[in-house]
Specification:
seven-stranded mixed beta sheet; 8 helices; 164 residues; single chain; alpha/beta
């Protein structure tokens, strides 16, 4: 699975309250959550994000509460991939569960700037900064997790399997 898009770059400790502010947690509408994604850290994000775009961030992305709303808001906004130095463990698992592609790669975080165009091959773990020509290598997920992510998440994959 390949993802290609423009980069939105953030720093360390981007928490779930910044990804989707608590004042919007009274909805389960993915479109409504997407409409408020990142608004407290980047008010222009929802106006500028395009399908396939990529978030790049530092350490501990997704820290804070265990709400699934955060990766849902990111995915529903059109983001095709989040690359970070590291992810909070609950966010990491929630991302897999809802089918949001994520990669840990400190070298890529260091070598990618806001606005760069990046292409990633999730099955190989390769990340290419098309703006600079530099290529980075992340550890790809094992095939069974890639299947969960590419299939839209854990529940969708379980539903497909039970329908067989």
């Amino acid at each position: 699975m390949k993802v290609k898009g423009k980069v939105f770059k953030y720093g360390n400790d981007v928490d779930t309250d910044v990804i989707i502010p608590a004042r919007y947690l009274n909805t389960t509408s993915e479109n409504e959550l997407a409409g408020h994604c990142m608004e407290d850290i980047d008010p222009e994000f929802v106006k500028n994000v395009q399908p396939g775009d990529i978030i790049v961030a530092g350490d501990n992305f997704g820290c804070g509460s265990s709400r699934e709303h955060a990766p849902i808001a990111i995915k529903a906004s059109g983001v095709g991939l989040v690359i970070a130095n590291s992810f909070a463990r609950i966010f990491y698992r929630n991302s897999i569960n809802i089918g949001l592609p994520i990669l840990e790669c400190p070298e890529a975080v260091e070598g990618i700037s806001a606005g760069d165009e990046v292409e990633a091959d999730l099955s190989e773990g390769t990340i290419k900064n098309l703006t600079t020509g530099k290529t980075f290598k992340a550890q790809p997920f094992p095939p069974f997790i890639q299947e969960i992510i590419s299939g839209g998440g854990l529940l969708k994959n379980l539903a497909k399997r039970s329908a067989k």
